[in-house]
C-alpha cells in the first residue's frame, strides 16, 4: 500500500519559534500527539522536525523547563524522518523501525508537507487487509464444503 493511501492530510504544524506551551495547546485543540515543525507555516511547508506529546512531558515538564519560553526548535527531533507520498508502506514501516519513531511526516515530490503517517495508521491498514484475507479464506472453505454436498 502506498503512503498516499494511508496518511492523514490534516497535519498540525508550527514554526520553529513556537513555544512548547503553544505546541501543547495545538495538540490539545486538534486531539493529536504531535506537531510538525515547518520552515514556513503559511507558504511552503517543508518539515524541519517533529515534536511529540512525549517530548513535552519528558523534556519540558520533567526537565523543569518553562513551557512558555522553551522553543520547539530545541525540542524537535532532527533530522526529521520523512516518507514520500509515493512510497510503499513496507519501506516506511522499516524506516520507522530503524529510527525508533512512531510518526513520520509525508512529503510530495517537491519535499512539501502533504500529510503525516503514524504507526497506528499503518497497523490499521495491515489489520484491515488481514481481516479481508481471513474472509476470503472462510468463503473459499464454505464454497468447497457446499460443492461437496
Element layout with pairings:
Elements lengths: L12 E3 L4 H11 L3 E5 L8 E6 H9 L21 E2 L4 H11 L3 E5 L5 E6 H29 L2
Parallel strand pairs: 1-2, 4-5
Antiparallel strand pairs: 2-3, 5-6
Low-confidence stretches: none
CATH topology: CBS-domain
Q: What does the average pLDDT come to?
A: 90
Structural class: alpha/beta
How many whole angstroms does the radius of gyration measure?
20 Å
CATH classification class: Alpha Beta
Helix content: 40-55%
CATH superfamily: CBS-domain
Number of strands: 6
Strand content: 15-25%
Total number of distinct structural domains: 1
One letter per element, helices H and strands E, the order comes to: EHEEHEHEEH
Please work out how many helical segments DSSP would assign. 4
Give me the CATH architecture, please.
Roll
In whole angstroms, how far apart are the ends? 39 Å
Structure commentary:
It is a single chain. The protein is α/β, with parallel strands linked by helices and 149 residues long. It has one domain: CBS-domain, CATH 3.10.580. It is built from four helices and six strands, in the order E-H-E-E-H-E-H-E-E-H. The strands form two sheets. A three-stranded mixed sheet has the order 1-2-3. Strands 4-5-6 form a three-stranded mixed sheet. The model has no long low-confidence stretch (mean pLDDT 90).
Amino acid at each position: 500500500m502506498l503512503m498516499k493511501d494511508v496518511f492523514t492530510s490534516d497535519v498540525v504544524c508550527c514554526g520553529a519559534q513556537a513555544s512548547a506551551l503553544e505546541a501543547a495547546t495545538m495538540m490539545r485543540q486538534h486531539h493529536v500527539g504531535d506537531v510538525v515543525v515547518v520552515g514556513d507555516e503559511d507558504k511552503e511547508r517543508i518539515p524541519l522536525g517533529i515534536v511529540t506529546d512525549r517530548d513535552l512531558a519528558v523534556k519540558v515538564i520533567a526537565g523543569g523547563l518553562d513551557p512558555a519560553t522553551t522553543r520547539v526548535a530545541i525540542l524537535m527531533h532532527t533530522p526529521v524522518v520523512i516518507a514520500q507520498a509515493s512510497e510503499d508502506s513496507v519501506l516506511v514501516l522499516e524506516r520507522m523501525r530503524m529510527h525508533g519513531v512512531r510518526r513520520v511526516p509525508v512529503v510530495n515530490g517537491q519535499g512539501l508537507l502533504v500529510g503525516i503517517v503514524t504507526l497506528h495508521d499503518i497497523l490499521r491498514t495491515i489489520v484491515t487487509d488481514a481481516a479481508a484475507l481471513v474472509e476470503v479464506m472462510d468463503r473459499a472453505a464454505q464454497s468447497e464444503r457446499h460443492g461437496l454436498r
